[in-house]
Amino acid sequence: MNDFLLWWQHLPSLMNPVIVTIGNFPVRWYGMMYIIAFAVVYVISLYRLKSEKLPFERSYVGDALTWAMVGVVLGGRIGYIIFYGMESLMSDPLGMLLPWASSSGTCRFTGITGMSYHGGIIGTIIALWAFSRSRKKGFFETFDLFIASVPLGYTFGRLGNFINGELYGRVTTAAIGMYFPSAPTHELRHPSQLYEAFFEGIVLFSILWLLRKKSPFAGFLSAMYLFWYGLFRFFIEYFREPDPQLGFVFLNFSMGQVLCFLMIVASGIIFFNMKRSATKQ
Question: Do the beta carbons of residue 41 and residue 149 sit within 8 Å?
Protein backbone atom coordinates (compact mmCIF):
# COMPACT_ATOMS: atom_id res chain seq x y z
CA MET A 1 0.00 0.00 0.00
CA ASN A 2 2.81 2.40 0.90
CA ASP A 3 4.54 1.66 -2.42
CA PHE A 4 1.34 2.44 -4.36
CA LEU A 5 0.81 5.65 -2.40
CA LEU A 6 4.37 6.78 -3.09
CA TRP A 7 3.93 6.01 -6.79
CA TRP A 8 0.59 7.83 -6.91
CA GLN A 9 1.85 10.95 -5.19
CA HIS A 10 4.86 11.24 -7.51
CA LEU A 11 3.06 10.18 -10.70
CA PRO A 12 3.03 13.69 -12.28
CA SER A 13 6.83 13.84 -12.28
CA LEU A 14 7.01 10.43 -13.99
CA MET A 15 4.98 11.51 -17.03
CA ASN A 16 6.46 13.10 -20.14
CA PRO A 17 4.04 15.50 -21.88
CA VAL A 18 5.88 14.99 -25.19
CA ILE A 19 5.19 11.77 -27.08
CA VAL A 20 7.94 12.24 -29.64
CA THR A 21 9.94 15.13 -31.13
CA ILE A 22 10.23 15.35 -34.91
CA GLY A 23 12.96 17.86 -35.68
CA ASN A 24 12.01 20.95 -33.69
CA PHE A 25 8.37 19.91 -33.56
CA PRO A 26 7.23 18.20 -30.33
CA VAL A 27 4.17 15.96 -30.60
CA ARG A 28 2.44 16.39 -27.25
CA TRP A 29 -0.08 14.27 -25.43
CA TYR A 30 -2.22 17.38 -24.90
CA GLY A 31 -2.70 17.90 -28.63
CA MET A 32 -3.23 14.17 -29.14
CA MET A 33 -6.00 14.23 -26.54
CA TYR A 34 -7.84 16.87 -28.60
CA ILE A 35 -7.71 14.56 -31.61
CA ILE A 36 -9.00 11.63 -29.54
CA ALA A 37 -11.75 13.82 -28.07
CA PHE A 38 -13.06 14.86 -31.49
CA ALA A 39 -12.83 11.26 -32.72
CA VAL A 40 -14.93 10.10 -29.75
CA VAL A 41 -17.57 12.77 -30.39
CA TYR A 42 -17.62 11.91 -34.11
CA VAL A 43 -18.07 8.16 -33.59
CA ILE A 44 -20.75 8.52 -30.90
CA SER A 45 -22.64 11.13 -32.93
CA LEU A 46 -22.68 8.79 -35.94
CA TYR A 47 -23.98 6.03 -33.67
CA ARG A 48 -26.80 8.32 -32.49
CA LEU A 49 -27.56 9.26 -36.07
CA LYS A 50 -28.09 5.61 -37.00
CA SER A 51 -29.63 4.18 -33.84
CA GLU A 52 -31.98 7.08 -33.08
CA LYS A 53 -32.78 7.89 -36.72
CA LEU A 54 -31.98 11.59 -36.31
CA PRO A 55 -32.79 13.85 -39.31
CA PHE A 56 -29.22 14.53 -40.43
CA GLU A 57 -27.00 13.22 -43.20
CA ARG A 58 -23.83 11.35 -42.24
CA SER A 59 -21.70 14.03 -43.93
CA TYR A 60 -23.38 16.68 -41.76
CA VAL A 61 -21.64 15.28 -38.66
CA GLY A 62 -18.14 15.48 -40.11
CA ASP A 63 -18.66 18.93 -41.62
CA ALA A 64 -20.16 20.32 -38.41
CA LEU A 65 -17.30 18.94 -36.31
CA THR A 66 -14.77 20.52 -38.68
CA TRP A 67 -16.35 23.91 -37.98
CA ALA A 68 -16.48 23.06 -34.28
CA MET A 69 -12.74 22.26 -34.22
CA VAL A 70 -11.96 25.72 -35.55
CA GLY A 71 -14.32 27.24 -32.99
CA VAL A 72 -12.74 25.31 -30.10
CA VAL A 73 -9.17 26.28 -30.98
CA LEU A 74 -9.83 29.94 -31.79
CA GLY A 75 -12.39 30.39 -29.02
CA GLY A 76 -10.24 28.57 -26.48
CA ARG A 77 -7.18 30.68 -27.22
CA ILE A 78 -8.99 34.02 -27.51
CA GLY A 79 -11.02 33.19 -24.40
CA TYR A 80 -7.84 32.46 -22.45
CA ILE A 81 -6.39 35.81 -23.46
CA ILE A 82 -9.58 37.70 -22.53
CA PHE A 83 -10.38 35.87 -19.29
CA TYR A 84 -6.90 35.06 -17.99
CA GLY A 85 -4.12 36.68 -20.02
CA MET A 86 -4.83 40.35 -20.73
CA GLU A 87 -1.79 41.45 -18.73
CA SER A 88 0.48 39.08 -20.66
CA LEU A 89 -1.08 40.24 -23.93
CA MET A 90 -0.19 43.83 -23.13
CA SER A 91 3.44 42.96 -22.31
CA ASP A 92 4.01 40.41 -25.11
CA PRO A 93 1.24 40.51 -27.75
CA LEU A 94 3.01 38.39 -30.38
CA GLY A 95 4.06 35.81 -27.80
CA MET A 96 0.46 35.41 -26.69
CA LEU A 97 -1.00 35.19 -30.19
CA LEU A 98 1.58 33.07 -32.05
CA PRO A 99 2.60 29.46 -31.27
CA TRP A 100 6.27 30.18 -32.07
CA ALA A 101 9.15 31.65 -30.11
CA SER A 102 12.39 33.07 -31.45
CA SER A 103 15.69 32.70 -29.63
CA SER A 104 19.34 32.83 -30.75
CA GLY A 105 18.24 33.44 -34.31
CA THR A 106 16.12 30.29 -34.53
CA CYS A 107 12.36 29.92 -34.60
CA ARG A 108 10.92 27.24 -32.31
CA PHE A 109 7.36 25.89 -32.25
CA THR A 110 6.01 26.21 -28.71
CA GLY A 111 2.41 25.20 -29.30
CA ILE A 112 -0.70 26.78 -27.83
CA THR A 113 0.18 27.25 -24.19
CA GLY A 114 -3.11 28.57 -22.85
CA MET A 115 -6.66 27.48 -23.61
CA SER A 116 -9.90 28.42 -21.88
CA TYR A 117 -12.76 25.94 -21.69
CA HIS A 118 -15.33 28.73 -21.53
CA GLY A 119 -13.77 30.45 -24.53
CA GLY A 120 -13.80 27.11 -26.36
CA ILE A 121 -17.50 26.53 -25.71
CA ILE A 122 -18.33 30.08 -26.87
CA GLY A 123 -16.25 29.51 -30.01
CA THR A 124 -18.03 26.21 -30.63
CA ILE A 125 -21.45 27.81 -30.21
CA ILE A 126 -20.57 30.55 -32.72
CA ALA A 127 -19.13 28.03 -35.19
CA LEU A 128 -22.10 25.64 -35.00
CA TRP A 129 -24.57 28.53 -35.20
CA ALA A 130 -22.92 29.75 -38.40
CA PHE A 131 -22.70 26.22 -39.80
CA SER A 132 -26.31 25.29 -39.03
CA ARG A 133 -27.52 28.52 -40.64
CA SER A 134 -25.45 27.79 -43.75
CA ARG A 135 -27.13 24.37 -44.00
CA LYS A 136 -30.57 25.74 -43.08
CA LYS A 137 -30.80 23.51 -40.00
CA GLY A 138 -31.84 24.41 -36.46
CA PHE A 139 -28.98 25.44 -34.19
CA PHE A 140 -30.24 23.69 -31.06
CA GLU A 141 -31.06 20.52 -32.99
CA THR A 142 -27.44 20.55 -34.19
CA PHE A 143 -25.99 21.37 -30.77
CA ASP A 144 -28.11 18.67 -29.10
CA LEU A 145 -26.82 16.13 -31.61
CA PHE A 146 -23.24 16.53 -30.40
CA ILE A 147 -23.60 17.66 -26.81
CA ALA A 148 -24.53 14.23 -25.42
CA SER A 149 -21.09 12.89 -26.36
CA VAL A 150 -19.01 16.03 -25.72
CA PRO A 151 -18.36 15.26 -22.00
CA LEU A 152 -16.77 11.92 -22.85
CA GLY A 153 -14.47 13.65 -25.31
CA TYR A 154 -13.80 16.36 -22.74
CA THR A 155 -12.51 13.67 -20.37
CA PHE A 156 -9.47 13.22 -22.61
CA GLY A 157 -8.82 16.97 -22.62
CA ARG A 158 -8.53 16.98 -18.83
CA LEU A 159 -6.28 13.93 -18.96
CA GLY A 160 -4.08 16.01 -21.27
CA ASN A 161 -3.96 18.75 -18.63
CA PHE A 162 -2.99 16.13 -16.06
CA ILE A 163 -0.15 14.78 -18.19
CA ASN A 164 1.03 18.36 -18.73
CA GLY A 165 1.07 18.83 -14.95
CA GLU A 166 -1.04 21.98 -15.28
CA LEU A 167 -4.29 23.20 -13.70
CA TYR A 168 -3.37 21.35 -10.52
CA GLY A 169 -5.35 21.73 -7.32
CA ARG A 170 -4.89 23.45 -4.01
CA VAL A 171 -2.62 22.22 -1.24
CA THR A 172 -4.02 19.25 0.71
CA THR A 173 -2.99 16.80 3.41
CA ALA A 174 -5.22 14.05 1.99
CA ALA A 175 -3.58 10.88 0.70
CA ILE A 176 -5.12 11.48 -2.74
CA GLY A 177 -2.85 14.50 -3.15
CA MET A 178 0.03 14.59 -5.64
CA TYR A 179 3.30 16.45 -6.08
CA PHE A 180 3.21 18.54 -9.25
CA PRO A 181 6.68 19.60 -10.47
CA SER A 182 5.42 22.93 -11.89
CA ALA A 183 3.68 23.93 -8.64
CA PRO A 184 5.32 26.83 -6.74
CA THR A 185 5.78 24.72 -3.60
CA HIS A 186 6.65 21.05 -3.08
CA GLU A 187 3.41 20.13 -1.31
CA LEU A 188 0.68 17.62 -1.93
CA ARG A 189 -2.07 19.07 -4.09
CA HIS A 190 -5.48 17.90 -5.24
CA PRO A 191 -5.36 16.29 -8.72
CA SER A 192 -8.23 18.56 -9.75
CA GLN A 193 -7.76 17.65 -13.42
CA LEU A 194 -8.81 14.10 -12.56
CA TYR A 195 -11.79 15.35 -10.54
CA GLU A 196 -12.91 17.31 -13.60
CA ALA A 197 -12.29 14.38 -15.96
CA PHE A 198 -14.56 12.23 -13.78
CA PHE A 199 -17.41 14.60 -12.90
CA GLU A 200 -17.46 16.95 -15.92
CA GLY A 201 -16.59 14.07 -18.21
CA ILE A 202 -17.76 10.60 -17.26
CA VAL A 203 -20.58 11.53 -14.83
CA LEU A 204 -21.96 14.28 -17.07
CA PHE A 205 -21.78 11.98 -20.10
CA SER A 206 -23.78 9.37 -18.18
CA ILE A 207 -26.46 11.93 -17.30
CA LEU A 208 -26.86 13.23 -20.85
CA TRP A 209 -26.70 9.76 -22.37
CA LEU A 210 -29.60 8.64 -20.19
CA LEU A 211 -31.60 11.76 -21.07
CA ARG A 212 -30.90 11.87 -24.80
CA LYS A 213 -33.97 9.85 -25.86
CA LYS A 214 -36.25 11.63 -23.38
CA SER A 215 -35.50 15.13 -24.64
CA PRO A 216 -38.90 16.91 -24.80
CA PHE A 217 -37.80 19.79 -27.04
CA ALA A 218 -34.83 21.13 -29.01
CA GLY A 219 -32.33 22.76 -26.69
CA PHE A 220 -33.15 20.53 -23.71
CA LEU A 221 -29.86 18.61 -23.83
CA SER A 222 -27.94 21.83 -24.43
CA ALA A 223 -29.50 23.38 -21.33
CA MET A 224 -28.81 20.26 -19.27
CA TYR A 225 -25.19 20.27 -20.38
CA LEU A 226 -24.64 23.91 -19.45
CA PHE A 227 -26.35 23.46 -16.07
CA TRP A 228 -24.60 20.30 -14.94
CA TYR A 229 -21.19 21.29 -16.27
CA GLY A 230 -21.49 24.68 -14.60
CA LEU A 231 -22.57 23.08 -11.32
CA PHE A 232 -19.83 20.43 -11.28
CA ARG A 233 -17.09 22.85 -12.29
CA PHE A 234 -18.26 25.50 -9.79
CA PHE A 235 -17.70 23.13 -6.85
CA ILE A 236 -14.53 21.54 -8.23
CA GLU A 237 -13.04 25.04 -8.40
CA TYR A 238 -12.86 24.90 -4.59
CA PHE A 239 -10.21 22.18 -5.03
CA ARG A 240 -8.46 23.79 -8.00
CA GLU A 241 -5.68 26.35 -7.58
CA PRO A 242 -6.86 29.76 -8.83
CA ASP A 243 -4.86 31.18 -11.73
CA PRO A 244 -1.89 32.98 -10.14
CA GLN A 245 -2.22 36.08 -12.34
CA LEU A 246 -5.85 36.53 -11.24
CA GLY A 247 -6.40 34.92 -7.86
CA PHE A 248 -9.98 35.41 -6.68
CA VAL A 249 -11.78 37.87 -8.95
CA PHE A 250 -15.00 38.39 -6.95
CA LEU A 251 -15.16 37.92 -3.19
CA ASN A 252 -13.73 34.38 -2.74
CA PHE A 253 -14.78 33.17 -6.18
CA SER A 254 -12.34 32.34 -8.99
CA MET A 255 -12.79 33.39 -12.61
CA GLY A 256 -13.86 29.81 -13.37
CA GLN A 257 -16.63 30.01 -10.78
CA VAL A 258 -17.89 33.34 -12.12
CA LEU A 259 -18.03 31.94 -15.66
CA CYS A 260 -19.72 28.74 -14.44
CA PHE A 261 -22.36 30.77 -12.62
CA LEU A 262 -23.09 32.53 -15.93
CA MET A 263 -23.36 29.10 -17.59
CA ILE A 264 -25.97 28.03 -15.04
CA VAL A 265 -27.94 31.24 -15.64
CA ALA A 266 -27.69 30.72 -19.42
CA SER A 267 -28.96 27.14 -19.04
CA GLY A 268 -32.09 28.39 -17.30
CA ILE A 269 -32.73 31.01 -19.99
CA ILE A 270 -32.31 28.44 -22.77
CA PHE A 271 -34.47 25.86 -21.01
CA PHE A 272 -37.46 28.10 -20.41
CA ASN A 273 -37.26 29.93 -23.76
CA MET A 274 -37.03 26.72 -25.78
CA LYS A 275 -39.74 25.06 -23.69
CA ARG A 276 -42.01 28.05 -24.31
CA SER A 277 -41.26 27.98 -28.04
CA ALA A 278 -42.04 24.25 -28.20
CA THR A 279 -45.35 24.79 -26.36
CA LYS A 280 -46.46 27.44 -28.86
CA GLN A 281 -45.90 25.16 -31.85
Answer: yes
170 C-beta neighbours (distance < 10 Å), count: 15
Instruction: List, for residues 114-173, the tens digit of each pLDDT value.
Output: 778 899 999 999 999 999 999 999 999 999 999 999 999 999 999 999 999 998 999 999
Cβ contact 128:64 at 8 Å: yes
Domain range spanning residue 273?
Answer: 2-280
Q: How many domains does the chain have?
A: 1
Could you tell me how far CA 70 lies from the centroid of its own chain?
A: 14
Radius of gyration of the chain (CA): 20
How many Cα atoms sit within 13 Å of 190 on the Cβ side?
16
b/e string for 235-268 if b means 16 or more Cβ within 10 A?
ebbebbbbbeeeeebeeebbbbbbbbeebbebbe
Determine the Cα–Cα distance for residues 109 and 34; give it in Å rounded to an integer: 18
- Tell me the pLDDT tens digit for each residue of 47-105: 999 999 998 999 999 999 999 999 998 898 888 888 876 655 555 555 555 555 555 55
Cα distances (angstroms) measured from residue 225 to each of 40, 148, 179, 217: 17, 8, 32, 14
Greatest CA separation for the chain = 66
